[in-house]
C-alpha cells in the first residue's frame, strides 16, 4: 500500500457531487475558481448511463429489485445497505440510511419534488413553539430560490399561500385519470389540492441549450438522457467540467479532512477505489457535501490535536439533531370505478402532478408540525418491483370481493381465462396518496462513530440512535385518519389496513423518507452549532458545508430545493470572502 | 410506506409459508433452454454485470420440474382471444431466472412442485404432467381458491399462490402481456392530460 500526495494546491476541494456539492462546484467553476471534486462512486452521465425507455422485458428480472432496492431501472447505485460499508444501531433504533455512491448522488433517482420552505419554517421555535429558529429568514434565502428556479427550472402554479411560497414556474403537467378521483375526494374533505412542483422541464428552459424539454415518459427515477429533469450530474457537475475549472476524481472515498497546525483545513485524504491506494490532496478551502450522515461521519473522523473532538465540533453538536421526514398514511386503494378503464398514454412526468400543501398551519392540534399529501394514480408500465409496481399483485386477493362484469360474485383466486381477464380489468385502477411531514430536530436523535466497527477501508462507521417522539406519532395518527377518509370518499378498496399505536399508526422507520438533515447545523451561537449562517465552520474558517446536514430544522417541504439555494448562497459568500482576502 | 413497498407487502401475502420436507433434490441440469436476455452493461455496476453473467450459467430446475412449471403456467394464463399463453410469453424461463435472482422462492417452488406430484400420485397414480387435463384441473381447483380450500390442501394453496404470482408477473411484464394490458406509454410524446371525452364519461370535467 502506498500514500500518494498530490503536489497541486487546489483553490477548493469539494467532497461529494450531489445537490449540495454540485451547486457549489457549478458556482465556483463559473467564477474561475479551480475546483477538485471528490466523488465516492463512479462517474455517471444520464445521457449515456440512464436505463430510460427500456421495457420491463429488457431486464432479466423484469424491473425487480434484487440488486437495486427501487427496481432494476432505478438510477441509484447503492441502497439501504452497501457491501463492506455497514452502519450500526443503538438503543434498539432502526434508522435506515440510503446512500447513492455515484456522480450526482441521490439526485439521479429522486422524485424531483421541488418545494421552497416558507417564512414560518425558518422560525420554527417562534412559529410553532418547538425546535430552533434558523439563523436566516425566508427573505434572506428567497433571492437564491429565485436563482435556482431560473437556473434549473421548476413547474408549479401560483397560489399565494403564506407558508408555501410560489416560485418562478414553468407550466405544471395536468393530472392522470386516477389522480382526478383522488383530488375530488381530498377536496371533499375541505383540503386544497394544487399542482405539484417539480424540477422537470415542461417547457424549454430560457437560455439553456444543453437540456431538452420533457418528453413525458414518467421515468425521472431512471435519470434523463436529454437532461429534461434536474440531476446534479447532468445540470451542474457536467456543465461545470465544461468550464475547464472543475475536475472530478471519481471512486474517491474520503477518509478525513486534513488540518494544519493552525487548525485550518489543508486538504483531504481518500482511498482511490480503482487502485486501492491512499491519496492526499491539498486545498485552500474545503467544502463538505457528502450527504447529511456521511458529512457528520467525516467530521467526527477528522480528529487532530487542534480538533480532538472531531473537526468543527467544539459545540459537540456534529451528528446530533439528525431528523428525517415522517412518512405515513399509506392511502393506497383500488378504485372499482376505474375497472376496464380506457387506455391511453398517461405516463406524464416522473414527479408530482398534484399535491396538497399543509392545510392546518396555525390550527390547534395534538402535534406541532404539518405534513403534505402527495397524490398518485396511473397506468404505469407493468413491471416487477420498482417504484411503479404492478397492481396485478393484488388481483387474486381481491377478485373474490368484487362483482364481475356480469354483476355476479365468484370465488377469490382462481386460474385460467377468467383470472387472465381479471388482471386486464384491474389494470390502471390503483390510486392514492402518501403523507410526508416534518419532524422536530432533537439533540437525542443522532449518529455517532461506533468505536468498535470499521468498514472495509478501515474507516470507523456510523452508529444511529433515533426514536420517533410522541409528537411525530400523533402526527402519524392524523395522517392515517386523513388517508382513510380520502380512500373512503373515493369509494376505494383500501389495500393497507389502519394500524394502531403498537406500530405508531403506520409511521415508517426513520430514514425511510430519505430526507434526513440536521447533523451539522447552522446557528447563531458557536457554542451550540457547528456552522454560522453562511455554512462556514465556526472552528475552521476555510471549511464550509453545503448539503442537508446544515439544516437547523426541516419542514414538511422536501429538502433538495433548499439545499440548492443554501449551497449557491454559501458558494457566493466564499467568492466574496476570497476577494476580500478573508479566506 | 410508499406505494412500491405497499405492493411488495401485498405480494408477500402468498410468500409467507415455507414448505417442509423435500429438502434433498439433485440439481440435475434441465434440457437446454433458450439463451436468456442479452445483458447490456451500460449504466450497470460491475457487480451487477458479474452477477447476471454468473446466473446465466446456472440451472436450478430439472427438466421434470421445468415441464411441470410449463403446464401449470399455461393453466394459470392460457391462450385466449386477446393473447398467447404463459409459455408463449416465456414465463417458464422467467421463473427459472427469478428463483436464482431471489433465492427465497427456491425451496417453496421445489417443495411445492413435489407436493403437487405426490398429490397426483395419491389420486391418480401418475405425476402431474402425466395426468389428463381434467385430472390436472381437478387438483388445481382444490388449491386455487384459498378461502374454499380444504384444510389438508393448505400447503398446495401456499405453493399455488406463489406460482400464480410468478406466472402473472412473468406474463404481464413480457412483450405479449404488456400489449394485452394495453399499456400505451414508454414512448416520447406530449402529455396534455386525460382526453376531454374520457373526463366527461367519468363526470370529472372542471
Walkthrough of the structure:
- The complex is a heterodimer of chains A (583) and B (206).
- By secondary structure, chain A is α/β, with parallel strands linked by helices.
- Chain A has helices at residues 19-30, 46-49, 124-128, 138-152, 177-187, 232-242, 292-301, 395-398, 416-426, 470-489, 560-579; strands at 3-15, 35-38, 78-79, 88-89, 99-100, 194-195, 246-249, 252-259, 265-272, 278-288, 326-334, 354-356, 371-377, 430-437, 446-454, 460-465, 493-494, 536-537, 540-545.
- In chain A, strands 1, 2, 7, 8, 9, 10, 18 and 19 form an 8-stranded mixed beta sheet that branches.
- The two termini of chain A are 35 Å apart.
- Chain B is an all-alpha fold and 206 residues long.
- Chain B has one domain (3-201).
- Chain B contains 9 helices and no strands.
- Chain B is globular, with a radius of gyration of 20 Å.
- Chain B starts with a helix and ends in a 5-residue tail after the last helix.
- The model of chain B is unreliable at 1-35 (pLDDT under 50).
Number of strands of chain A: 19
Provide the residue-averaged pLDDT of chain B.
86
> What series of H and E elements makes up the topology of chain B?
HHHHHHHHH
Radius of gyration of chain A: 24 Å
How confident is the prediction overall: mean pLDDT of chain A?
Answer: 97
| Helix and strand sequence of chain A | EHEHEEEHHHEHEEEEHEEEHHEEEHEEEH
Summarize the main sheet of chain B. Answer: none
Q: How far is the first residue's CA from the last residue's CA of chain A?
A: 35 Å
